[in-house]
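Render this sequence as a predicted structure.
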Amino acid sequence: MINLLGISGSLRAGSLNRRLLELADELADDRAKIVVSDLLAIPLYNPDVEAIGTPDSVTDLKNRIAESDGVLFACPAYYASMSGALKNAIDWICRTPEPARGSSVLGGKPVAVLGGGGGGGTITAQDHLKQILTVIGADLMQEPVLDYAQISDRVDDNGVLKGSDDRNQLSEFITSFLDHVGRADKP
C-alpha cells in the first residue's frame, strides 16, 4: 500500500480543502492511505527560533514527509496565491541543518497539488505553490490539474462532492498521482 501525507493550506476546522484530502483517501480505497496533517502547530518561521532549535511540530511534519511515499497538497487561494500558513510551513520544511544546506525533505519526493476555492478557483495559487515545489526539487506531478471553482456549491452538507463528474475527476487525479509515486519508486 502507498502511504501518502496530505497537507491542507487552510487552517479552518471546516476547510473544504482538507475535506478534499479526506475524500481522496476514501477514493484511493485499498491502493493507498492518505493521512491528513494540519499546520495549526507550526509557528511563524523565525531564524532566531530556529537558532534555539527546530520546533517539535516542524520536526514532526518533516518526519511525516520523510516517511511518506508522496505528499498531496490541498491549496486554497488567498488573494490569488497560497495561504500564508502553507508558505510558512514550506519555509520551515525546507530548512536543513549544516552541512546539508540545499537539500530538503521534499527534494525528490513525489508531490501533487489540488485545490478548491471560490469563483476564481485556485489555479493561480496552485501555480505559485508549484513554482516553489519545483525550485526546492520536489518530484512534481504536472498533469492532471485539479481545481474546483465554487467548491462550496459542489459539496453537500457532509462535505461530499455531489456531482459524479467531480468525484470522477478526483478519483482520476488520485490514480494519476499513485502512478506518479509508483514511477518514482522504480530505478
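Summary. The longest strand covers residues 2-8. Residues 164-184 form the longest helix (21 residues).
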